[in-house]
Amino acid sequence: MHILLTNDDGFNSDGIQILAKHCREAGYETTIAAPKEERSAASHSITLRRPITVEKIAEGEYSIDGTPVDCVTIALQKLAKHPPDLVISGINAGQNMGEDIHYSGTVAAAKEAAFLGHKAIAVSLTAYKDQIYDTAAFWMVKLLKRGFINILDNNMVMNINVPNVPIDQIKGIKLTTVGHRKYYNFLKLIDKKENIFSYLIEGDLPIWERKKGTDAEAIAENYISLTPLGFNMTKGDAFPALMEWLEENEKFLLSDR
């Protein structure tokens, strides 16, 4: 099996390098294409109006001066010797649960791979410091050895979050829904002049609503969270009210043109 690894923490981050080590030890052909610098919270941004520089670090390993989505696009179209069987984004330093999935460069890189027709996984370790990356890497490889790739669809992302505990403290795996989190005090004033203010986005850790069946509940109980993500953005249940409004106002909307 050929695996393409990417992330948003950067080429030299421990998460992606430890995952690559585990994948290669398991016998998987592994290509790395990751941002040169950390690009956390880059979401699905791409680089326009300037060249993107690719540096070959070693055979099958590339550091790219771009966003996570740039890395996946370039790797799939130009760098990989042959199409990968699977794209894995991670291991991310910190969770990607709840609303975080919309900001995450880690999840966005996996989404881009799925948009391009590839099976894709985003994997994150739920800690911002003192990460035990070997736990997430061990379980990721264990899933692959049991044929996990065979149940993945090409038009989805499997979002995996792993508790930051030793391997033997993982209680199991749960299929979950996307939860909800709240951030408080996340804007910090760092400089103030007469008419100029400088802020830094940081602050308190999020508070998670641990509703039954959510990713947050699973992680709190030391279970690995598996959340399949889809891409249908149409809110179908809004159609009846909108159709009724359009029918009632059609004559007015088309008059006086």
Write up this protein.
The chain has helices at 14-25, 68-79, 100-103, 105-115, 133-145, 215-220, 239-254, and strands spanning 2-6, 29-35, 54-58, 61-64, 86-93, 120-125, 157-162, 172-175, 180-182, 187-192, 197-201, 207-209, 223-229. By secondary structure, it is an alpha/beta fold. The strands form three sheets. The chain has a nine-stranded mixed beta sheet with strand order 3-4-2-1-5-6-7-13-8, sandwiched between helices. Strands 9-12 form a two-stranded antiparallel ribbon. Strands 10-11 form a two-stranded antiparallel ribbon. Strand 10 and strand 11 form a beta hairpin. The longest helix is centred in the last third of the chain and has 16 residues, at 239-254. It is globular, with a radius of gyration of 21 Å. It starts with a strand and ends with a helix.
Q: Helical residue percent?
A: 25-40%
Number of helices: 7
Structural class: alpha/beta
Number of strands: 13
Largest sheet descriptor: 9 strands, mixed
Order of helix and strand elements from N to C terminus: EHEEEHEHHEHEEEEEEHEH
End-to-end separation in angstroms reads 60 Å
Low-confidence stretches: none
Overall geometry: globular
Summed over residues and divided by their number, the pLDDT gives a mean of 93
Share of residues in strands: 25-35%
> Roughly how many Å is the radius of gyration?
21 Å
Biggest β-sheet: strands ordered side by side in the sheet: 3-4-2-1-5-6-7-13-8
